Amino acid sequence: MKSDRTPAGDAFAAFAISVLRLAGHLQNAGDALAKPTGQTSARWQVLAAADHAPMSVADAGRALGMTRQGVQRIADLLEKDGLILYADNPAHQRAKLMALTESGKAALAAIQARQAVWANALGEILGKKEIAEATHTVIAALQAVEKQSVPEG
Amino acid sequence: MKSDRTPAGDAFAAFAISVLRLAGHLQNAGDALAKPTGQTSARWQVLAAADHAPMSVADAGRALGMTRQGVQRIADLLEKDGLILYADNPAHQRAKLMALTESGKAALAAIQARQAVWANALGEILGKKEIAEATHTVIAALQAVEKQSVPEG
DNA sequence: CGTTAAATGACAATATACTGTCAAAAGAAC
DNA sequence: GTTCTTTTGACAGTATATTGTCATTTAACG
Asked: Where is the HTH marR-type domain (chains A, B) (predicted)?
C-alpha cells in the first residue's frame, strides 16, 4: 500500500530521516571527541551541566532531557573518577549539588577544546549563513513536533 | 576555560545541539506512531526494509546503519509475531531472506498511514520550501561529518 | 580443485537506558 | 502546626544495544 502523503508531507518525512541519520553521526562524533579524555557524550553532557551551575541530579536530568536515574548513574561514575563531587545543598538535605573538581574542569576543557576545532572546521565547510537558516528550521520543527500530537491509534 | 570557537563554529555547535534534540523527539514520535500496532521505531524500520525488497538480516543492518545482531534480534521478534518469515535464499544457504507476511504488510501499512497524517500536518506547518532547504543543509552536514575526522587525541 | 579470506547467523557477555517502586525529605494547603 | 502532595535518591527489574567469539557457508585467489 502506498502512503498518501502530500508534497510537504513527503518533504518532512525526508527531512526527518536525514535528521535522524545526522544525529547518529553527531552522537558518534561526540563520543569520539570525548573518548581521549576517557569520557562519553553522556558524561560530557553531565559535566557541562554541572559546570554551567551547580545543580542536583534531578535538575540536570530535566535540563538535559534525561531521566533522573540515568543522570544518577553517570554522576556516580563521574564522582568515582574524581571529576565531580557531591556538595551539600543548603536548600535540600538529600539533593546534593554536583560540582566539578579541578580534574573535572580540566577534562571538560580538554573536550571543549577538541570540540571547538571540530565545530570550526565543519562550520567553515557548511557556511555560517546556511547553518543558521537550517538551525532556524530545525528549532521550528522541534517546537512543532512537541505541539503536534501523534494521530490517535 | 572558554572554548575558542569561530562564529561559524558557534553556529555549527548550536545546529548540532538542536539536531540532537529534534532527533530525540522524532524518535519518540516514531515510537508513538508505531505503538498502536504493537511495534516500535526499530521494528518499523526493519519491516520497511524487508518490504522494500527481501533481504538478509545483514543486508538490513547495513541499510539501516544497525548492527547485524540488533537487526537479528528485532527480526526474530517480528517472525515470532508472524509479521515476517525467513524465506530460503537461492544465493546463500544460511542467510535467509526476510519477507513480509500479509499480517506484516497490514501492520506496516497501518503505521505508514498514521505517519502520513503526522508528516502532512508538520509539512504544512513548516512549509515545503523551508523544509527542503533545511534538508539540503542537513545532508551536507551528514556528508561533511562523515568525511571530517575528529581531531586526534 | 585446494586454500585462504570474508560474510553470516548464533550465542554470550557487557553496557546502557527506561520503568516502576520505595522511603526520606521538602513544599503546599488548610 | 498538621496533613497531603511533590520531589529526590536508591534500588530492582526489564528492555535494548553493543561488542566479541564461534562454526558454517560463501566468495576470492591461484
From this structure: 12-143
What is the span of the domain harbouring residue B62? 39-142
Residue A93 lies inside a defined structural domain of this protein: yes
The reply to whether A35 Cβ lies less than 7 angstroms from strand D is: no
The 10s digit of each residue's pLDDT in B45-56 is 999 999 999 999
Å: B93 CA to C1 C1': 22
B106 inside domain: yes
Q: Report d(CA A78, CA A104) in Å as an integer.
A: 8
| A104, closest residue in chain B (CA to CA) | B1
> Is the shortest CB-to-strand distance from A95 to strand D under 7 Å?
yes
A149 alpha carbon, distance to own chain's centre:
24
Task: With CA atoms as reference, report the closest residue to A42 among A27, A56, A52, A62.
Answer: A27
**For chain A, what is the radius of gyration of the CA atoms?**
19
Q: Which residue is listed with cell 546556511?
A: A130
- Total count of domains within chain A: 1
Question: Which CATH number belongs to the domain containing residue B76 in this structure?
Answer: 1.10.10.10
pTM (predicted TM-score): 0.92
Residue B70 C-beta-side C-alpha neighbours within 13 Å: 13
Which pLDDT does position B93 carry in this prediction? Answer: 86
* Positions of chain D reached by protein Cβ under 7 A: 7-12, 16-20, 24-27
- Residues B1, A112 contacting (CB under 8 angstroms): yes
- Give the model's pLDDT for residue A3: 66
Residue A82 covered by a domain: yes
Residue nearest to nucleotide C11 (CA to C1'): B69
A52: part of which helix (H) or strand (E)? helix A41-52
Cβ atoms within 10 Å, residue A52:
10
Kindly state whether residue A8 falls inside one of the protein's structural domains: no
Q: Return residues 8-47 of B near A (CB < 8 Å).
A: 8-16, 18-27, 29, 32-33, 35-37
